[in-house]
Amino acid sequence: MELSWFILTLLLTVYKSNGEIRQEPEIFANRSSTVTLTCEHDNSDHYRLFWYKQAKGTVDLSLMVFSASQNQANIEEPFKSQNSKYAATRPEIMMSTLQINKLDTKDSALYYCATSTHYPAYFGNGTKLTVLGKNIQKYPDVTITEPTLKILNTTRCKEKVTLVCVAENFYPDHVSIKWTLGDKEITEDVATDPYATKDENTKMFNISSRLKVSKKEFTPKNTFRCTVTFNNSTHVSEKTVYITGTGGISLDIS
User: Fold this and answer.
1) Which residues of the chain are modeled with pLDDT < 70?
2) How far are the Cα atoms of 78, 98, 103, 121, 130 from residue 85, in angstroms, in the given order?
3) What is the pTM of this model?
4) Which phi and psi angles does 77 have, rounded to 5°?
5) CB 112 within 8 A of CB 124
6) Is the bond preceding residue 220 a cis peptide, omega within 30 degrees?
7) Among 55, 87, 93, 115, which one has the highest count of C-beta atoms within 10 angstroms of its own C-beta?
8) CB-CB contact of 139 with 229 (8 Å)
9) Residues 6+ apart with CB under 8 A from 56
10) How many CB atoms lie within 10 A of CB 39?
11) What domains sit in the chain, N to C, each tagged with a CATH number?
């Protein structure tokens, strides 16, 4: 009985040590302006707090801020030496801010807040900061390529159709893609680019998503839809393309 109570207590302690970390999902800002990112969490035992930056196209995290307690937040190198570009506060144990001044397009990145007692640190979902390099917003052009047939298993002769949905020539790069069949979202056999790529000539972004469908499902009775959601900081819009087993393609814009 004592052992059971010990296990229960340990489980409760581990659950409490995690908690919830809240950050704004995304922020748009203009060049040369100032932005303030906010982090809030609900565990007063987590007296350590960190801010990390993940630059576009990388998986590396760079430590920007370390706070060991309330009213104390230190900017770490190499960010510390960048002429007061960054400032951090910790007015409460469960709240912190990160201010970034004189914004440039290089500041566009994911900024993560993390907290801990000792180890490990628990991360929030991050804030995606987009610094607008141009005074424009360009909605994406969306297409589905003609399906390609691929033999996945020659011994069992199972064939699958690969549908590729391409969103291109848009700015900024805040888009998401989903596939649906009827009213149901498709999540299996879907591979979407982890982030949009930038054309250095046009400065516009492109992204693609691929869906594998069994040949038996790719019939005139089934209509597969690719929906691209675009957020240009003032308006959220959607473009949907759809294709049936006959290969017909249509475009719906809302």
Assistant:
1) 1-18, 134-158, 233-234, 246-254
2) 11, 11, 9, 26, 17
3) 0.61
4) -70, 150
5) yes
6) no
7) 115
8) no
9) 108, 109, 195
10) 26
11) 20-132 (2.60.40.10), 141-253 (2.60.40.10)
Residue written as token pair 């990160």: 98
What tokens does 197 get? Answer: 């790529």
